[in-house]
Amino acid sequence: MSQFPVRRMRRLRRTPGLRRLVQETHLVPSQLVWPLFVRHGTGVRQEVSALPGVYQTSVDELVKDAERAASLGLGGIILFGLPAEKDATGSEAYDEQGIVQQAIRAVKRAVPDLVVMADLCLCEYTDHGHCGVIADGDVDNDATVYLLGKAAVVQARAGADIVAPSDMMDGRVAGIRKALDAAGFSRVPIMSYAAKMASAFYGPFREAAGSTPQFGDRQSYQMQGANADEALREIRLDLDEGADIVMVKPALPCLDVIRRAKEEFGAPIAAYQVSGEYAMIKAAAARGMLDENRAMWETLYAIRRAGADIVLSYFAPPAAEALG
């Protein structure tokens, strides 16, 4: 065994060039996905107060963001919709003229090669803010899965490259896969939010998407953050049901789950650096408490180092611009 001072670890840290030479974890724009929020109207670009640099946009403005994503070489965009009206069953989610379906068609016309993912959930569309149909004061799992299948089909028909169920209903991947296949969309992949924790870090997103529950919370269907073994079982179930990509969310509090999932399954793993993770960096930087740019890189590389192949992040555009 080499003894000090023969083995000096600092030799390869001495210059930027040497550090680049031995860098183990790499990030490229094609691994980044940009979350975008679309609403009805024209010429709308409204900043989300809790998320500096994140906007609710109308379809025409969203297309500009999609063109920017394509020019930056991003891996894709994922769309979240704000409906014109909400109801008990979230009907705009599975309406052919729903806002996300309009946005998908417009983006695919403008930048056909850009990968467009559609978040698949009812929470933005229901008047109660929960991720499914309410029966006897709770979310009805199987009735919700049926509606998710309908929504997946209209998203695929609009041109979505990937549908991404985020609801955490049991059996929804199998239900969505069956619905897509029956409608002639067997080629459309499913990116499942497989291990989605009930997290405080979703707070700013609920302002952006207008999806705050009007009663109770989502702990009866989203996972308990303390349960890593359960998270692995959820991921296995979704893969067995036909998920093509599985997601862990939120990213930073779940780095261990990302690592274990990659090692155990070897499937494509996505991780969502969620609104609260982004917002706390922005807020701390605004107060001079840390360097925003360095914090962005440290967190993105940590997620990649843990094993994520795909990173959903509001930092996607500035990161891609810097990567060149």
How is this fold's topology laid out?
Elements: H1 16-21, E1 32-39, E2 45-48, E3 51-57, H2 59-72, E4 76-82, H3 99-110, E5 116-120, E6 134-135, E7 138-139, H4 141-158, E8 162-165, H5 172-182, E9 191-196, H6 203-209, H7 228-241, E10 245-249, H8 255-265, E11 269-273, H9 275-286, H10 292-306, E12 310-313, H11 316-323
Parallel strand pairs: 1-3, 1-4, 1-12, 4-5, 5-8, 9-10, 10-11, 11-12
Antiparallel strand pairs: 2-3, 6-7
Helix pairs in contact: 2-3, 3-4, 4-5, 7-8, 8-10
Q: Would you give an account of this structure?
A:
This protein has 324 residues and is an alpha/beta fold. It has a single domain (27-323), classed as TIM Barrel (Alpha-Beta Barrel). Helices cover 40% and strands 18% of the residues. The protein is built from 11 helices and 12 strands. It has helices at residues 16-21, 59-72, 99-110, 141-158, 172-182, 203-209, 228-241, 255-265, 275-286, 292-306, 316-323, and strands at 32-39, 45-48, 51-57, 76-82, 116-120, 134-135, 138-139, 162-165, 191-196, 245-249, 269-273, 310-313. Strands 1, 2, 3, 4, 5, 8, 9, 10, 11 and 12 form a 10-stranded mixed beta sheet that branches. A two-stranded antiparallel ribbon has the order 6-7. Helix 8 (255-265) runs parallel beside helix 10. 45% of the residues are buried. The model has no long low-confidence stretch (mean pLDDT 94).
